[in-house]
Amino acid sequence: MNNQKIMICDDDAGILEVLEMMLEMEGFSVFTENNSTNLLKEVANVRPDLLLMDLWMPVLSGDQLLKTIRITPEFQKLPVIIFSVSVDGKHIAKDAGADDFIAKPFDMDNVANTIRKVLTQYQM
């Protein structure tokens, strides 16, 4: 693996920890952010290859952030995967411009496979 950088944003520390451990075992460099209001600054600093983000977070929701990312020239091509427990999550994520959606509770193999699939699409 070429040590691709994954940024994860979720207000749930437990989910961040599990995803970070799992994705590091898959060979990714992982950066986490639990405060959605800091996310754009962190994305600018880290320049991740992909952003994995919860849909429902306090202050700024994932779809609000994603809409901002999609209209910001330096970030608009950033691959983004949204995850959520929401039954409407897939539809909301797609409308906001997400590249893919993962339902919570998630299967770890599915998370890694979805990330690889989206990263591959962007490398074409």
Short description:
The chain is α/β, with parallel strands linked by helices and 124 residues long. It is 44% helix and 19% strand.
What is the spatial order of strands in the main beta sheet?
Answer: 2-1-3-4-5
Beta-strand percentage range: 15-25%
The major β-sheet equals: 5 strands, parallel
CATH architecture: 3-Layer(aba) Sandwich
- In which range does the helix fraction lie? 40-55%
The low-confidence runs, each spanning 5 or more residues with pLDDT under 50, are none
Observed structural traits:
alpha/beta; 5-stranded parallel β-sheet; 5 strands; CheY-like_superfamily
Secondary structure layout plus pairing:
Blueprint: E1 5-9, H1 13-25, E2 29-33, H2 39-46, E3 50-54, H3 62-71, E4 80-84, H4 89-96, E5 100-103, H5 108-123
Parallel strand pairs: 1-2, 1-3, 3-4, 4-5
Helix pairs in contact: 3-4
Mind explaining what this structure looks like?
The chain is of the alpha/beta class and 124 residues long. Helices cover 44% and strands 19% of the residues. The protein has five helices and five strands, in the order βαβαβαβαβα. It has helices spanning 13-25, 39-46, 62-71, 89-96, 108-123, and strands at residues 5-9, 29-33, 50-54, 80-84, 100-103. It has a five-stranded parallel sheet, sandwiched between helices. InterPro entries: Bact_response_regulator, CheY-like_superfamily, Sig_transdc_resp-reg_receiver. Residues 5-119 form the Response regulatory domain.
